[in-house]
Specification:
The complex is a heterodimer. Chain A is mainly beta. Chain A is built from no helices and twelve strands. Helices cover 0% and strands 50% of the residues of chain B. Classes of the chains: A mainly beta, B mainly beta. Chains A and B meet through strand 6 and strand 11 of A and strand 4, strand 5 and strand 8 of B.
Chain lengths: 116, 111
């Protein structure tokens, strides 16, 4: 069965520091995308970063980067120079049928609080 | 441009009533998804429309749930004979490629 596990229900970090959110997953697919989504209190889910499983290079988007370990099925998100606006729920997800599209399976989420 | 919109933003209904939730996707997006977000279950897939193909209904929790997508655009999720366990936030997303763009959701409360 396809699963996504986020083992940290809540985390906090001081403004300007770095924090890493963990995610492990299980899939029998060989080609797939992985995503991190952010959900602020407004409820609107926003894509933060994506990783294509066939690429060895870790994805980076400004202050956000991933540590993708395909053999270990691990996909952690690193947020550098944390800002107050990063306070949100963060969800790790991937398409249940593999590839880049189709319905997503999500982890339970990590609630991140950035403190001034 | 306009994003995904959903209406109503909040809905309170009595147990046993039917409700309709609406989703307006981004123009031109061929894929449309409904998810449910509840405290105990996290985010769950409900149904997926892709172009003119038959929808993937594999996530619908019971036959009280149904959805339509008219003209490849607007979608309506209908819940018949609502139960208290249906209380949740219902999220709609649309996609033209790999990225799913989410609406703000409808918070449904069944009393």
């Amino acid at each position: 069965a396809q699963t996504v596990t986020q083992s940290q229900p809540e985390m906090s970090v001081q403004e300007a520091e770095t924090v890493t959110l963990s995610c492990t997953y299980d899939t029998s697919e060989s080609n797939y995308y992985l995503f991190w989504y952010k959900q602020p209190p407004s409820r609107q889910m926003i894509l933060v970063i994506r990783q294509e499983a066939y690429k060895q290079q870790n994805a980076t988007e400004n202050r956000f980067s991933v540590n993708f370990q395909k053999a270990a099925k691990s996909f952690s998100l690193k947020i550098s120079d944390s800002q107050l606006g990063d306070t949100a729920m963060y969800f790790c997800a991937f398409p249940v049928s593999g590839g880049s599209q189709g319905n997503l399976i999500f982890g339970k989420g990590t609630k991140l609080s950035v403190k001034p | 441009g306009a994003g995904v919109s959903q209406s109503p933003s909040n809905k309170v209904t009595e147990k046993g009533k039917d409700v309709e939730l609406r989703c307006d996707p981004i123009s031109g997006h061929t894929a449309l998804y409904w998810y449910r977000q509840s405290l105990g279950q996290g985010l769950e897939f409900l149904i997926y429309f892709q172009g003119n193909s038959a929808p993937d209904k594999s996530g619908l929790p019971s036959d009280r749930f149904s959805a339509e997508r008219t003209g490849g655009s607007v979608s309506t999720l209908t819940i018949q004979r609502t139960q208290q366990e249906d209380s949740a936030v219902y999220l709609c997303a649309s996609a033209g490629g790999y990225e799913q763009y989410f609406g703000p959701g409808t918070r449904l409360t069944v009393t």
